[in-house]
């Protein structure tokens, strides 16, 4: 229960400041664990985590991923559908009766509005339109997501590849912030990998249902290891910049900050939050772009554009692989 645990450790002034949005972020307490468990029962996706019923079952041919609010399935060749777990449109009282349905509906509304704001951009997942009665069509990431790639292929990732992906990850956030959007859930899993005609593999950012845009406040905060527990649990641009430091660290080292093989996610979350709260971060002096990583963790960058400029200089302007 990361947010409650964080709040209880704070001075009362920060506690009162944070209590307002706490309900908006409640889903974040359980989402990462739910996603991890879900991968083990992917064959039974429509019933394994939907105890309240109201299943939504569009005509997808294969399930690729699922989380607390959404399922991603292959709709046809090279096109995936992100759709909600619950068919709330068929159950008029569902939103009032079930918090999970309320959260899912809010998440899809927020993501739909933000996708319209972001439009088409080379660092944003390619949106192919709405699906009736609910869902978003996207171009399928033929190389999976960044976390999967690191887990399976890190030894083959050259410095040029890692540098390019760090730069591209920053380009995505600089673009988001220029549009007034805060992602608020940055981690390698939310960067997708696409093959390019010239042989490169490029990053695109996805998953905006928990993001913030103006008065639209999503449901997310970053996971432990990608969030600064010294800050109030309220999404800001600084939230994304801090998370980028941990994304860079994962790309360069092959693992999350302070990760120990075999550790349970709940234990890791508590331990890394305690270390980060004391300002104890992994050593980065021997990592390429270590100074940039440290700068993200230490609030050196006021804007994503400042970070992008520094990345461009440190990473020698490598935009490709």
From TrEMBL:
EC number: 2.7.11.1
Catalytic activity: L-threonyl-[protein] + ATP = O-phospho-L-threonyl-[protein] + ADP + H(+); L-seryl-[protein] + ATP = O-phospho-L-seryl-[protein] + ADP + H(+)
GO (cellular component) term, any one: nucleus
Biological process annotations from GO: mitotic DNA damage checkpoint signaling
UniProt GO molecular function: ATP binding; protein serine/threonine kinase activity
Annotated ranges, domain Protein kinase: 46-321
Top-level taxon: Eukaryota
Self-association state and partner proteins as the record states: Component of the EKC/KEOPS complex composed of at least BUD32, CGI121, GON7, KAE1 and PCC1; the whole complex dimerizes.
Purpose of the protein: Component of the EKC/KEOPS complex that is required for the formation of a threonylcarbamoyl group on adenosine at position 37 (t(6)A37) in tRNAs that read codons beginning with adenine. The complex is probably involved in the transfer of the threonylcarbamoyl moiety of threonylcarbamoyl-AMP (TC-AMP) to the N6 group of A37. BUD32 has ATPase activity in the context of the EKC/KEOPS complex and likely plays a supporting role to the catalytic subunit KAE1. The EKC/KEOPS complex also promotes both telomere uncapping and telomere elongation.
Protein name: EKC/KEOPS complex subunit BUD32
């Amino acid at each position: 229960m990361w947010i409650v645990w964080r709040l209880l450790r704070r001075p009362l002034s920060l506690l009162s400041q944070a209590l307002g949005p706490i309900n908006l972020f409640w889903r974040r307490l359980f989402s990462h664990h739910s996603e991890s468990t879900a991968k083990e029962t992917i064959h039974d996706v429509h019933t394994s985590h939907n105890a309240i019923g109201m299943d939504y079952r569009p005509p997808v041919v294969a399930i690729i991923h699922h989380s607390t609010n959404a399922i991603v399935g292959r709709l046809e060749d090279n096109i995936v559908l992100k759709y909600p777990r619950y068919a709330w449109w068929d159950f008029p009282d569902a939103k009032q009766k079930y918090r999970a349905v309320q959260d899912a509906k809010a998440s899809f509304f927020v993501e739909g509005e933000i996708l319209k704001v972001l439009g088409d951009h080379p660092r944003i997942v390619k949106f192919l339109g709405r699906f009736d009665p609910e869902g978003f069509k996207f171009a399928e990431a033929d190389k999976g997501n960044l976390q999967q790639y690191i887990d399976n292929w890190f030894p083959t990732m050259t410095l040029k590849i890692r540098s390019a992906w760090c730069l591209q990850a920053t380009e995505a956030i600089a673009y988001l912030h220029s549009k007034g959007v805060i992602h608020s859930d940055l981690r390698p899993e939310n960067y997708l990998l696409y093959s390019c005609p010239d042989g490169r593999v490029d990053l695109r950012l996805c998953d905006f249902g928990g993001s913030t845009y103006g008065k639209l406040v999503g449901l997310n905060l970053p996971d432990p290891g990608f969030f600064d527990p010294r800050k109030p649990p309220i999404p800001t641009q600084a939230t994304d910049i801090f998370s980028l430091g941990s994304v860079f660290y994962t790309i360069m080292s092959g693992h999350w900050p302070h990760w120990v093989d075999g550790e349970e996610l709940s234990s890791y979350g508590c331990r890394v939050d305690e270390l980060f709260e004391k300002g104890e971060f992994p050593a980065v002096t021997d990592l390429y772009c270590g100074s940039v990583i440290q700068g993200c963790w230490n609030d050196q960058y006021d804007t994503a554009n400042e970070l992008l400029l520094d990345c461009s200089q440190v990473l020698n302007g490598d935009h490709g692989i």
